[in-house]
Amino acid sequence: MHPRVIVLKFGGSVLTDVDSLRLAVHEVYRWRREGWAVVAVVSAFAGRTDELLEKASQDRISADPHAVAAMLSCGERESAAQLIACLDRVGISAALLDPVAISLRAKGPALDACPDGFDTRVVHAGLDECGIVVVPGFLAADDLGRAVTLGRGGSDLTALVLADGLCAERCRLIKDVDGLYEHDPAGDGPPPGRYERVSFDDALALDGSIVQHKAVRFARDHRLSFEVCGLAGVKATEVGDHASRVSVPSHTPPRTRVALLGLGVVGKGVAELLLQTPDRFEIVATSARDPQRHEGWCRCHGVPIPARDLREVASAGADVVVEAIGGVEAARDAIAAALRGGAHVVTANKAVLAEHGSELFALADACQAQLLISASVGGGAPILEAAARSEVAGIRGVLNGTANFVLGRLAIGVALDQAIAEAQELGLAEADPTRDLDGRDAVDKLRVLAERCGIEPRSIDRTRADIREVHPGEKRSQIATLDHDGTLRLGLKRLADHDPIANLTNEWNAVELTFADGTSEVIRGRGAGRWPTAEAVLADVLDLEREILGHHSERGSVQLA
């Protein structure tokens, strides 16, 4: 299967500092889990280019424009490398491709050059391997291999050049505004209209502070439509060869109200991610088994002090309830209470879904609410989303990151008790990791996958699946299999090095999906730990937020001649 390609460009107005890279991660993961191959083009952090220009002047290299271009290139390369690190932290595989690596050439002045093609094969190879590539924007090389830049705002141009050469289905320039406006919405006077669609010529009539004019001219000359939108945007401004249409300004929608059931490793991770965008989310209630243990943390972060009564918090009037308490019966009751109270629910709890998934999904439908479960299988690997895109004939993979970590340590001779202790210290294993070790956790995930694929589980074979039977020095993988007839199997196997799900390090998961049409797809990602799970939970919350915001974004519009 060949996924669609989208080019996302993150400008300096969005990448304000290192912490803001988390927001870029959310956006990349949003599109990746929808099945897109993603090319992420990044600018330098806000103000970084000016700092480097000042340094070039102080170091007296400003007389050589190619040397200045080389100095300026440090900003984009820095932010691109740090985005790769942030993606890796949440278990999302990505390849960093420098403009030199893709042979991005440009002609003209060293500090205002015009692109002249690149090697599309290198980018496609990176997408085939990882599904995501990150490219520093703004930079290129001339025919002599000297550094050049593409002018102020040149990352916009980089994104459009890549989209054109790759024949990408979409190109979205992500800014600190939700689209293009007739004039600055922060200025004096009546609020300006927002363009739902804008022609190339009308875009060029704007002041160029949001989208580089040179980039717009490139798009016009190549008849390349593109979008301008904010992070996690609902509706983008479409720039292209069409008549402009302006929408009537709408009121700012209210924040999405979130209740958190559980403040353990995952619950606090989700809370930290939500708190990074206080203009969008409000944590209205929390619960914990031992409220006093978390009071200090809650006060420090401005989060409501946790209650002990799960049902009380679940029915506290939130738009979205995040269930992160684990277990089965208490979680089932809390999820049911939230759904009956009119809230949508997000959970990473594969155990409760394996036991009561059908019942809870039916209840969600009856209550006209949604129950989203992306984090229950695969962590940072969007396995459930991939399984839902086409008819699945079979699944084979490594589904438990904790087990894979322990098996990896055993393979190099580490004793079992020490390997488990290391996993616990890293936050990859619970205090009682028995369900991970004996395979019950992986079987729960298989059952959730079967439900998603519409396959009725008929039998479960879990013979010789307990990793406590593996001796130090042995190389084994815990392999889960779902056949089209509903048979679930779990066992310990030694995989050949060329196997697409072999050689997974630490807590990584991988699944090979075989579809009814004979095609297949391999999905990889970190399968355990706070940040991979929290990222998957947040992705579901963001999906719900976009749906909620969609109900607030209906606007009147007028088409301009």
Reconstruct the topology from this structure:
Blueprint: E1 5-10, H1 21-33, E2 37-42, H2 48-58, H3 65-89, E3 95-96, E4 106-107, E5 114-115, H4 120-130, E6 132-136, E7 139-141, E8 147-149, H5 154-166, E9 170-175, E10 194-199, H6 200-205, H7 213-221, E11 226-230, E12 237-240, E13 245-247, E14 256-261, H8 265-275, E15 281-287, H9 291-301, H10 310-314, E16 320-323, H11 329-340, E17 344-347, H12 350-366, E18 371-372, H13 383-388, E19 392-398, H14 401-411, H15 416-425, H16 434-438, H17 440-453, E20 459-461, E21 477-482, E22 487-493, E23 508-515, E24 520-526, H18 530-550, E25 557-559
Parallel strand pairs: 1-2, 1-9, 2-6, 3-6, 9-11, 10-12, 14-15, 14-16, 16-17, 17-18, 20-22
Antiparallel strand pairs: 4-5, 7-8, 10-13, 11-12, 13-25, 19-21, 19-23, 21-22, 23-24
Helix pairs in contact: 1-3, 2-3, 5-7, 8-18, 11-12, 12-17, 14-15
